[in-house]
Write a structure and sequence with these properties.
The protein is built from 15 helices and no strands. It has about 350 residues and is mainly α.
Length: about 350
């Protein structure tokens, strides 16, 4: 695929989002999915890095430049409205039911730095605990496009650009090892220690957009996607032991690599078994609602668990309420701003 040719909408990627958010929700329900939340977030990170880098490459190929104003406008329209509604709702509900949410939690989440209070001094974010990952992504979104644009201006060889990004991945993993004597919260919530996951997706976008994927056989891509999804599900169900912090870099690396192989596999071979399954309507629908599901599942969990103690009705109520709020968020809040977001898209050719 030429660098300036649009990736376009791929339903398989919504299926990947569905897998990721399902793992997170099951983890929040305290079901026997030892590493579900961790794996779901890592998949989101890898996919986010892949998509934003693909868009930046397309814009560069079509116009010879990257408009940071348009990029930040698209990100704000995608992420801010639904989060603003969540913050307002959590503040009001907390006041009504007398379940306090700290001012620091609300302010830091609103500023997209909510991961650092948790990383540095273990702040309990309460019903906003899931928003730490939004902070990591937004901080990455602020810095990466600037550095990537500077890199594109000075380097014309995709292999050299990929080498720079690979060096960033290794540096992030190395930092995990250096900080391995700290508690796991510093490693898990820090933007610097989690940047490798996003950069892994960026590296995958370069491989995809530069045509390197064409050198891999279709059979290898199909087998890779199948092995990746099986491995990710296996890791999701496996017991998680985080007492040995020096293993976290390796743990993150394995999950990130699996997520990347899955993304590239279903894009390179969309008609393969995994690609066909991920493109099915139920998974695509969940994927489209994944942002709302991610935002609302955790605060709903906090509210419901204080009132229902039987596992079965607790699970049913949480799932129904999460689905209801996610659908409302998508239709009432997200979709109107997504239409507005299109005004800031760069006109480039559509993939054929």
């Amino acid at each position: 695929m030429p660098a300036n040719e649009r990736l376009g909408y791929r339903p398989q990627l919504d299926g990947v989002r569905a897998l990721a958010v399902s793992a997170v929700v099951l983890y929040h329900l305290y079901l026997p999915v030892g590493a579900g939340g961790w794996i779901g977030v890592d998949i989101f990170f890898v996919l986010s890095g892949f998509l934003i880098t693909s868009l930046l490459i397309e814009e560069w190929g079509a116009t010879g430049k990257i408009s940071l104003r348009q990029f930040y406008a698209r990100r704000a329209l995608r992420l801010l409205p639904a989060l603003a509604v969540l913050l307002a709702a959590v503040a009001v509900l907390s006041a009504v039911i007398h379940k306090e949410v700290s001012t620091e939690a609300i302010v830091t989440v609103a500023l997209y730095i909510g991961n650092w209070p948790a990383a540095l001094h273990g702040l309990d974010m309460g019903p906003l605990g899931q928003c730490w990952s939004l902070g990591v992504e937004e901080q990455f979104y602020i810095v990466f496009p600037i550095l990537f644009a500077l890199l594109l201006r000075r380097v014309s060889d995709w292999r050299k650009i990929a080498t720079f990004i690979a060096a960033g991945i290794i540096g992030s993993w190395a930092l995990c090892l250096v900080l391995s004597n700290d508690n796991y919260m510093r490693l898990y919530f820090g933007t610097d220690t989690r940047a490798a996951s996003l950069l892994m997706g960026c590296l995958g976008a370069i491989a995809f957009k530069s045509g390197w994927l064409d050198k891999i056989s279709g059979r290898a891509l199909r087998v890779g996607a199948l092995a990746a999804v099986a491995g990710l599900i296996g890791f999701t169900l496996a017991p998680l032991n985080i007492s040995q912090y020096h293993w976290l870099a390796l743990y993150f690396g394995v999950i990130d690599l699996g997520a990347l192989v899955l993304v590239l596999g279903v894009l390179g071979q969309p008609a393969g078994a995994v690609g066909r399954v991920l493109a099915r309507r139920p998974l695509v629908a969940i994927g489209r609602l994944s942002y709302g599901i991610y935002l609302w599942s955790f605060p709903i969990d906090h509210i419901v668990q204080a009132r229902i103690h039987n596992r079965i009705p607790l699970t049913v109520v949480e799932l129904v309420l999460t689905a209801t709020m996610a659908i409302a968020s998508y239709r009432i809040v997200e979709r109107p701003f997504l239409r507005l977001k299109k005004r800031f898209n760069v006109p480039v050719p559509t993939a054929t």
